[in-house]
């Protein structure tokens, strides 16, 4: 069995995909397959991919169905013990897969692992550390309760799954426009698996100029929907935790609405207001930890 299957959904990313592919094929962990799922690109993305001669690269073209469907196609094609995801405009550090393999082999209870990341704002030059509003977890292993309150992974390009964690038919929800990755991570940890944090910046996430605010609002709304749905499905959900998670979701919607100039920001803030003291204390606690 191949150690890693790397799934790369792509849609009109001809200007970025070659660098993304290079960052996979140049990994220190060489026992891998890279599956590129072209979701109906029309800009020459396929030609860029087919120009590579590495036998570890497989290319699959399908009509445009969205990123969740592309990732599900990848899951069906994957042969690896571990499954990693890289968006076609993001990049990996050369030791990304090596670090994840070390953690997943050492901790068999982990159904997924995720790493810290840099953000590259298009046109800004050098990668920047993750945004100040996105802080890493304070502990190395997290469970369902942790993930219900917040999606700690940041981006799917930071995540590696243990294939066995998908044995019960788990997959990406193709009805979601965004947040389908968070929905799957939550489903995995709700089954009893844990999530492990690799405390190194091993992913460069590209923030493209055409998706800075509208996408943030759409993501916040879909994440709120995911939290509400997952909480309703879980028998282990206690009312206080669910309430806090939903209120956190409304705060994210309020913030994203305000940034986007959407007038619903005040209504969203009113729904999320009770959670403000909790998350303010969390931020203060983290600042104190950083200074010690």
Describe what this molecule looks like in 3D.
By secondary structure, this protein is of the alpha/beta class. It has two domains: 4-211, Alpha-Beta Complex (Spore Coat Polysaccharide Biosynthesis Protein SpsA, Chain A); 214-291, no CATH class. Helix content is 41%, strand content 21%. The chain has ten helices and ten strands. It has helices at residues 17-25, 45-50, 67-77, 96-106, 144-149, 180-190, 214-233, 239-260, 265-272, 276-291, and strands at residues 4-10, 32-39, 57-62, 82-85, 91-92, 110-121, 128-129, 141-142, 159-162, 194-207. Strands 1, 2, 3, 4, 5, 6, 7, 8, 9 and 10 form a ten-stranded mixed beta sheet that branches. β6 (110-121) and β7 form a beta hairpin. α7 (214-233) packs antiparallel against α8 (239-260). The longest helix has 22 residues, at 239-260. One of its GO terms (molecular function) is transferase activity. This is Glycosyl transferase family protein. Pfam families: Glycos_transf_2. Residues 5-130 form the Glycosyltransferase 2-like domain. Keywords: Transferase.
In summary, what is this structure?
GO terms for molecular function: transferase activity. The protein has 292 residues and is an alpha/beta fold.
List the helices and strands and how they pair.
Layout: E1 4-10, H1 17-25, E2 32-39, H2 45-50, E3 57-62, H3 67-77, E4 82-85, E5 91-92, H4 96-106, E6 110-121, E7 128-129, E8 141-142, H5 144-149, E9 159-162, H6 180-190, E10 194-207, H7 214-233, H8 239-260, H9 265-272, H10 276-291
Parallel strand pairs: 1-2, 1-4, 2-3, 6-10
Antiparallel strand pairs: 4-9, 5-10, 6-7, 6-9, 8-10
């Amino acid at each position: 069995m191949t150690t890693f299957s790397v799934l790369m959904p792509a849609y009109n990313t001809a200007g970025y995909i070659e660098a993304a592919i290079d960052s996979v094929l140049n990994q220190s962990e060489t026992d891998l397959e890279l599956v590129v799922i072209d979701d109906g690109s029309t800009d020459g993305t396929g030609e860029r991919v087919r120009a590579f001669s590495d036998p570890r690269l497989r290319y699959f073209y399908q009509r445009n169905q969205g990123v969740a469907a592309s990732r599900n196609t990848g899951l069906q094609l994957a042969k690896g013990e571990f499954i990693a995801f890289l968006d076609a405009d993001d990049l990996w550090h050369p030791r990304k897969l090596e670090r994840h393999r070390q953690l997943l082999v050492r901790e068999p209870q982990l159904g997924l692992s995720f790493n810290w990341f840099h953000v590259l704002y298009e046109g800004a030059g050098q990668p920047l550390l993750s945004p100040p509003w996105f802080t890493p977890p304070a502990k190395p292993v997290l469970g369902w309760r942790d993930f219900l309150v917040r999606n700690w992974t940041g981006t799917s390009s930071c995540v590696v799954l243990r294939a066995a964690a998908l044995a019960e038919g788990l997959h990406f929800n193709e009805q979601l426009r965004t947040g389908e990755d968070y929905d799957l991570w939550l489903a995995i940890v709700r089954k009893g698996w844990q999530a492990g944090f690799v405390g190194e910046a091993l992913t460069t996430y590209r923030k493209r100029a055409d998706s800075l605010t509208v996408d943030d609002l759409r993501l916040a709304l879909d994440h709120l929907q995911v939290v509400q749905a997952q909480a309703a499905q879980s028998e282990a959900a206690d009312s206080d935790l669910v309430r806090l998670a939903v209120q956190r979701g409304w705060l994210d919607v309020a913030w994203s609405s305000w940034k986007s100039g959407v007038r619903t920001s005040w209504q969203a803030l009113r729904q999320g207001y009770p959670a403000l003291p909790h998350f303010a204390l969390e931020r203060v606690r983290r600042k104190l930890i950083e200074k010690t």
